[in-house]
């Protein structure tokens, strides 16, 4: 006895992607890569901006340190003389940076000076500049105070 097979075989389906799926996947890939590239560019710009701000802050700190040490010259007797204006002095720690400083005494406080500082540097072939103001006290510079305290103080203690 032969029985007729009631099962019909389905035709095997071809495996693969349709052109619509491939185009959609490529579109998603292009959008993702565009977003990633723009994020990398934005990150690089932020990094450069942070680097420039940091170097500017370091230059300003160097100017303030130089001013606190040299703006008020010492007299031969060790007292502090009146400040003198500084014209286009270079910074050893920041090559290419020049600054000028103009001190103005506070009438209410004779040992207090407002110091207007102008800084210049070369950037992109153009001379650029910035101005800021600070308050400094007429006093013996920190380095000289430390020298007097530790160097001369040790000589006094040793009987020299």
Task: Give the helices and strands, then pairings.
Elements: H1 19-70, E1 86-90, E2 98-105, E3 112-123, E4 126-137, H2 142-158
Antiparallel strand pairs: 1-2, 2-3, 3-4
Question: What report would you give on this structure?
Answer:
The protein is of the alpha+beta class. The protein has one domain (about 30-160). The chain has 2 helices and 4 strands; from the N terminus they run αββββα. Strands 1-2-3-4 form a 4-stranded antiparallel sheet, with helices on one face. Strand 2 and strand 3 (about 110-125) form a beta hairpin. The longest helix is centred in the first third of the chain and has 52 residues, at about 20-70. The model has no long low-confidence stretch (mean pLDDT about 85).
Average pLDDT figure: 85
Q: How would you write the strand order of the largest sheet?
A: 1-2-3-4
Give helix and strand order, one letter per element, not per position. HEEEEH
Question: How far apart are the termini?
Answer: 132 Å
Q: Determine the structural class based on helices, strands and strand pairing.
A: alpha+beta
> Helix count?
2
List how many beta strands DSSP finds: 4
Approximate strand percentage = 15-25%
What would the principal axes of the Cα set say about the shape?
rod-shaped
Rg for CA atoms: 36 Å
Q: State the helical fraction.
A: 40-55%
Poorly predicted regions are none
Oligomer designation: single chain
Task: Give the number of domains.
Answer: 1
Give a short account of the largest sheet.
4 strands, antiparallel
Q: Key terms for this structure?
A:
single chain, alpha+beta, 160 residues
């Amino acid at each position: 006895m032969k029985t007729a097979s009631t099962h019909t075989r389905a035709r095997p389906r071809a495996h693969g992607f349709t052109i619509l799926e491939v185009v959609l996947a490529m579109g998603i890939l292009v959008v993702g890569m565009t977003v990633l590239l723009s994020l990398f560019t934005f990150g690089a710009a932020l990094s450069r901006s942070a680097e420039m701000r940091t170097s500017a802050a370091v230059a300003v700190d160097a100017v303030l340190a130089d001013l606190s040490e040299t703006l008020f010259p010492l007299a031969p007797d060790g007292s502090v003389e009146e400040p003198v204006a500084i014209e286009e002095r270079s910074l050893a720690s920041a090559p290419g940076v020049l600054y000028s400083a103009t001190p103005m005494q506070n009438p209410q406080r004779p040992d207090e000076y407002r110091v207007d500082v102008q800084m210049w540097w070369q950037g992109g072939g153009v001379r650029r500049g910035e101005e800021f103001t600070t308050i400094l006290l007429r006093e013996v510079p920190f380095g000289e105070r430390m020298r007097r305290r530790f160097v001369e103080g040790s000589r006094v203690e040793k009987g020299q």
